[in-house]
Amino acid sequence: MSVHDLLPALMPLDRFGLLCLYVMALTGTPGPANMALVALSGTHGIARTVPFFLGTLAGFAMTYWLAALGLLALVAGVPVVWGALKIACIAYILYLAWLIATAGPAGPDVTSAPAAPGFLRGFWVHPLNPKAYAMQVAAISQFTAPERYGADALVIWLTFFLLGGAMNFCWMIGGRLLTRFVHMPRLFRAINVTLALLMVASTLASLLAS
C-alpha cells in the first residue's frame, strides 16, 4: 500500500490545525479541572498532584469514547438521568472546592502536607461534568469525516490527550510557582478560595448552558 493510498485516512493538515487551536482554547482556559490542578499543585506539589492529573485524563478519555460511540446521546436523551448527572456534578465540584478552599500552602518539604486527592478523585471530574460532553461532541461533529470517522476520532482523542494534557500540566506548574512566590498563609488561603469559587462558577455556567 502506497502513501497515496493512506492519505484519505488521515485528517487534513488544515483541519488538524483548527483542531489544535480548538483544544488549546478549551483546555487552556479556566475550568473545574484546571482550577483544581492549580490549587492542588500549590498545596501538595506537582509530583503528588500527578495521580489526580492522570485521573482527569482517564476520565476524559472514558467520556470521549462514549461520545464517539454515540452512547452519551442516549444519556442526554433521558431527562431524569441528565438531571441527576447535573446534580451529581455540582455536588462533586462543591466537594472539591471545599478541599481546595480549606487547604494550606505546601512548605519546602511537600511531603509534610496532607494527602493529596488521588487518581479516583481526578477521574470523576470530567464524567460528572456535562461541559466535557459538550466539548467532546462538538469536536467530534466538527473534525470528523464519515469516510474516516474512526481515524479522525482517534486523532481528536490523541490531540486532547497530548496537547490538552500539556496545557493542563502547565496549569499545575503555574500553581506550584505561585506557591513559591506567596509566603503569607492568609494570601495563599485567599488565592485558594478564589480558585475554588472560579471552579464552582465555571461549572455552574456550563450546567446552565447544557
What does this entry show, briefly?
The protein is an all-alpha fold and 210 residues long. It has 10 helices and no strands. 38% of the residues are buried.
Strand content: under 5%
> Average pLDDT value?
81
- What is the helix content? over 70%
Major beta-sheet overview: none
Give the SSE string.
HHHHHHHHHH
Low confidence ranges = 1-7
Beta-strand segment tally: 0
Oligomer: single chain
| Class per helix and strand makeup | mainly alpha
Total DSSP helices = 10
Query: What would you report as the Rg, rounded to the nearest angstrom?
Result: 19 Å
- End-to-end separation in angstroms reads 45 Å
Polypeptide structure, described:
The chain has 210 residues and is mostly helical. It has helices at residues 3-6, 13-27, 32-44, 46-68, 71-76, 79-101, 119-123, 130-143, 149-181, 185-209. α2 packs parallel to α9 (149-181). The longest helix has 33 residues, at 149-181.
Mind sketching the topology for me?
Layout: H1 3-6, H2 13-27, H3 32-44, H4 46-68, H5 71-76, H6 79-101, H7 119-123, H8 130-143, H9 149-181, H10 185-209
Helix pairs in contact: 2-9, 3-4, 3-6, 3-9, 3-10, 4-8, 4-9, 6-10
List keywords for this structure.
10 helices; 210 residues; 77% helix; mainly alpha
